[in-house]
Fold this protein.
Amino acid sequence: MLSSIRHFVSRSPAFAIARRVLAKYRRQKYESKIARFLRERTGIADRLPHGAVYEGTMRCNLHCGFCWVGDLLNLEGEWREELPVDALRSAFPDKVGFQINLTGGELFMRKDIFEVLDVFKSKGYSCGYLTTNGTIIDDEKADALAKLAQSGFLKHISVSVDGPKDIHDEARGAKGTFERTAAGLRRLQEAVKRNGGRRLPISINTTVTKEGLDALDEMVDVAEELGVDAIGLNHLMYSTPEEVNETLRLLGEDDPALIQTYVTPDPGLRPESVRQKVSSLADKCRHKNIRFGTRPQISDEVLDQYYEPGGHVEGRCLYPFLNARVSFSGKMYFCPMIRVEVGDLTKNSMEEIWNNERYVELRRRLLDNTLFPVCQRCCKVELSPDRAIQPDSLQIEN
């Protein structure tokens, strides 16, 4: 009954108009945020970031060949460097309304992850999203997450799913992974009902890959099977070796390991095939009333160049002006893909780091080049500036 009501409301003209008005308001608000940075071009941001992504751990219980941070996962002894709760409390600023987003690794590999979340909750933060593979969400974890949602702190959970059962298991390198993810999601959904029923948006997140392209539109069936009403699609993040080398030159660096993305001379994805499959997925989502969005947002004209190896894509990125990227150990990096260290929260405050000399210099270089070559195919990039939205929000739209 409830799903029928939600289906009727979401299809109503008034609801569609309200969505468009909200989207326009968000675009205007975002543009006003970044206007000064574009006008002054100094590389200096506000006193503090608007939010931060915290990589709570780089431990993971899976070994996925396509993982773009795969080289950073499960490094010997790195868990000893994870910031303990007391250090986290002093490292992050006291700023009510600060948005914290959590990713990894697999967050629930940390035994103290709920103590970590309680630190951020006690500071008056909101958790915009939390990413997980869902495989180790037991009843206790599910109840704790449901309570965080009930309190208003936890806004969204994103679960990585790569396709129907067999495709997902193959991508994750272990049979039974899909069933473990499904079981974790069921526990979470049941816990939400037990804890007052406050809605906790849960989306499944998938990526365009050569291996999974043919089954991409089957993600709608997967969403229905898992009881999820939103799909986030990531276009493949990749760079050519030439783009990596040119970016390093522009940064004044020489270590290729600083660029954390999938590096290949050719991703093996033809634009027309991607276009057809993404369009089919979007159509099925509309028919089934499942919310759908892509990162980055790509028009048909841009898509050809995006998947053409060495193709040039126009756009911009203001992510490093608005969001901090904090590792498990407290080190801050310029952005998710360009892991040039700009500071260490165990030595300096976030405010001291946020506009230090190195950070400002890198932001200025970014503005001078509009985009670094490796930035062209990042989930944070704005390939259509006139449709810009907050880069770190999960782009789930009808």
About this structure: The chain has 14 helices and twelve strands. The longest strand covers residues 126-132. The radius of gyration is 20 Å.
